[in-house]
Every structure is written in C-alpha cells, then in structure tokens.
TrEMBL record, chain B:
Keywords: Cell membrane, Membrane, Translocase, Transmembrane, Transmembrane helix. This is Cytochrome c oxidase polypeptide 4. It comes from Xylanimonas oleitrophica. Part of cytochrome c oxidase, its function is unknown. The keyword Transmembrane applies.
Length: 312, 133
C-alpha cells in the first residue's frame, strides 16, 4: 500500500517540477527540461525516500522507467505523444541521414549525455535493400542460365528486336530522376518542405517540388517501359513466346514493379509531408529512406540495361 | 562501430574469391554460382559500407568503448512506435491475398482492398488525428 503511494507521490512531485520548469511551448527545450528535472528529482526523491523508509523500500525503479512515467503523466495522452515529440526534435545532421537523438548535451547534466546513434530506419532500409539485391541476383542468374543453354543464333534473333535508342533515353530519364530525388533529400535535410520562390526558381525548391518531379520522371520511365513492351509484343516477343521472352519480361517486369512500388512510396512521402504541420525528423527520415530505395532501383536498372541491351 | 563494419566488410573479399573458385571448378559453365556468390559479397559490401559511412558521421557509442558502462547508453535509443494495430491489418490482408492465389482471383481483389487500407493506415498513423504534428 505504501509503495504505490510513494511512487505516485514521487511522480507527482517530479511532475510539478517539470511543469514549473517548463516555460510553455512543448519542444526540445521542454523535452530537455523534462529529462533534467526528472533526473534531478529522481536523485533527490530517491535519497529522501530512502532516508524516510529505510529498510522498507525496494530498489528504486530504473531511471528510464521513471522518465517514462513522468512523460506519460505530463502528456496526459498515450506514450505515443512522446514518440511524436521525439520525432520532431531538433538536430540537423550534415549530409546523409538524420540521426536519432539528442535530449542531451545540456552542460548542467554531466551524468547523462545521450548517444548519437545510427538511425534504425535507415540501417533497416539498407539491410532490406541488400536482401533485394539477392532477389535481383536470382533474376540475373536466371537470365545468364537461359542465355547459356539457348542456341546462340536463336538468342541473337530475339535480341535484335530490342530498341536500344529508346531504352537508352528511358534509362537517362530514370538516372536523372535519381539526381532530382537527391535534391529533394537535400531539401528534406534542411527541413524545407516547400519552395521559397516562384515555381520556376528551381534553386529555391523544397522537397515537394523535387519529389514531385522525381515522381513524374519515374512515371515517364514506366510509361516508356509499357510502350516498349507493346512494341515487342507487336514483333512477337511475349512472355510465353520463347525462353528469351520469359527472361526479358521477368527481369524488366520485376524491376518495373519495383519502380511502381517506389512511385507509391513517393506518394506516401508527399502525403506524410502534406499532413505534417511541422516538417520534422519523421518526414525527413521518410524522404531519406525513400531515396535509398529509389537509388537502389536505379542502380539495378543500370545493371539490367547494361546486361540486356549491351551485353545481350 | 568497428565490429559491425568488419563483420560485413571482411566477408566481401571472401565471397568474391569463393565466386571465382566456384567458377574455375565448374569451368565457368554454371552462371547461378559464379554470379550469385560474388553478389552475396556485394550484399556484404553494401551493408558494411553503409555502416562505415554512418560510423564516420556519429560519435563513438558507449558500446565501442572497451571500458564503457551499460548505463552510458541510457537515453534515446531511436524513434519507435510503442504499439500499432496496423501491422496486424496488413498481415491479415496479406493472408487474404495469398489465399486468393490459392483459391481464386476474386479473393485476391478483396485482399488488395484491405492491403491498401492497411498500408495507408500504417503509413499515416503518426501523421493524423491525435498524433498530427
């Protein structure tokens, strides 16, 4: 009976200090204060209670448990508000990814310096993309296996129907879309969702403009692929016409599905950004990992293009 | 992050060499092996290089320090959703999609509808309603 009561008392005491220490707008400063106040209060209340209830008190809850409790009570919402606050923190990283972070670095808190860790979303995306590489490795293996068992002149008769010029133009569009995507990421990293100038002042574009342009270029690529398929079907190359047709449509088709998946990801990215009143780490991280995926799909296409159209 | 980087980077040359050895032993007659094995090396290189780049950008972590203590790692570990129902919706929708592959196309379309709902709900979970920010 005594123990829950002390816990509640302790939490309320800390809460009052947090509220007193908070000057208003929830944000980073607030978060830091919550942290510092809870930590200091944790220390003082621990000694206070340890002294008052010598021998009757179990070990004090861990620091993190304690903080979680405070945050839960102070927001009066689910712990998810704390999640969102965390995703909106300050902390600009230079090139590359946005790192998770930084309650810390307040000079008055030498006991605790929060660690600047790799962003789990980015690392997870890279690991997943590595597995995607294996998926495409299977497709390449299939392509070369069929190529090695099919009679050479039969194979050459099929590859002669490919339209290299058209595919090269299409490839250029996709490669350039990776550049525009990266420009969008740079805008996201400076937390700039929209343009600051006129629509044609490209230098002042924000993430929305760059990512929309990327989306359009990706859509052009898909349109080009559909056009090319139509041409080839017209010339009699279908997925069931020959072994060459099968590997051609399977490799380029699975790549095309990945590009479509990327286009959907861009829509989700733009949707998240439109929905956010304040463009924060949540949105920037989405932009960065979407760009990872897009670059990956682009690189895979360059390899596919080189193999199918040049190496044949 | 030395350990993580080495764990992946050091396996890259191994797989490249293994791919060449495989190619020689099979007389370069079997593309699945001599393409697939070096690409496993590429997988290792991809993760390792990313971790190496990340390691240059962040401060040394307590776990990189030989004399580090557990409690030095306290504080933010990253941003995680505390709970969510949406993965369950997506999982159920995926089961319907795969059921569709086995039973009939019409089931597949129903599964797609649920997948779209689940996916949108999941992606926008922390962007709307109570969590709008």
């Amino acid at each position: 009976m005594l123990l829950p009561a002390t816990a509640v008392l302790c939490a309320m005491l800390c809460l009052s200090h947090v509220v007193a220490g908070c000057s208003g707008a929830p944000g980073d400063a607030f978060r830091t204060r919550v942290f510092l106040a809870s930590w200091h209060m944790g220390v003082t209340t621990r000694s206070l209670f340890a002294w008052s209830f010598r021998g009757t008190l179990p070990p004090f809850v861990s620091k993190r448990e304690h903080i979680r409790e405070i945050v839960r009570k102070s927001t009066r919402a689910s712990p998810r508000s704390a999640f969102l606050r965390a995703s909106n923190g300050r902390g600009v990283s230079n090139n590359g990814s946005v790192s998770t972070t930084e309650t810390a670095a307040a000079p008055t808190a030498p006991q605790h310096v929060s660690v600047n860790r790799p962003n789990p979303v980015s690392v997870g995306t890279i690991v997943w993309l590595a597995s995607e590489l294996m998926f495409f490795a299977g497709l390449f293996a299939m392509y070369f296996t069929v190529r090695s068992v099919m009679p050479a002149e039969e194979w050459a008769a099929e590859t002669a129907k490919l339209n290299l010029t058209f595919a090269a133009i299409n490839t250029t569009v996709l490669v350039l879309s990776s550049v525009t995507c990266q420009m969008g990421v740079l805008a996201a990293e400076r937390f700039q969702p929209v343009r600051t100038g006129k629509i044609f002042q490209v230098g002042r574009w924000g993430m929305h403009e760059w990512m929309t342009l990327t989306y359009v270029m990706g859509a052009i690529f898909i349109g080009g692929q559909v056009f090319e398929y139509a041409e080839l079907v017209h010339e009699g190359v279908t997925i069931s016409s020959s072994a060459y047709g099968s590997v051609f449509y399977l490799t380029t088709g699975f790549h095309g599905l990945h590009v479509i998946g990327g286009l959907i990801a861009f829509l989700f990215l733009l949707g998240r950004s439109f929905a956010a009143r304040r463009f924060g780490h949540h949105e920037a991280t989405t932009a960065i990992v979407t760009s990872y995926y897009w670059h990956f799909v682009d690189v895979v296409w360059i390899a596919l293009f080189a193999v199918i159209y040049f190496l044949q | 992050m030395k350990i993580e980087v080495r764990l992946f980077i050091w396996l890259t040359p191994f797989f490249l060499v293994a791919g060449v050895v495989y190619g020689v032993l099979t007389g370069w007659d079997e593309p699945v092996g001599y393409l697939g094995i070096p690409l496993v090396g590429a997988l290792m290189a991809m993760i390792g290089a990313y971790l190496a780049l990340t390691a240059r950008r962040i401060d040394p972590r307590p776990e990189d320090d030989e004399n580090g203590d557990i409690e030095q790692g306290a504080g933010d570990q990253g941003v995680f959703a505390p709970w969510s129902w949406w993965p369950l919706v997506i999982g159920a929708a995926s089961s319907i999609v795969f059921l569709g592959l086995a039973v009939g196309w019409w089931v597949l379309y129903i599964g797609f509808i649920f997948s779209v709902i689940g996916l949108i709900g999941w992606v926008f979970e922390f962007s709307r309603g109570r969590h709008a920010h």
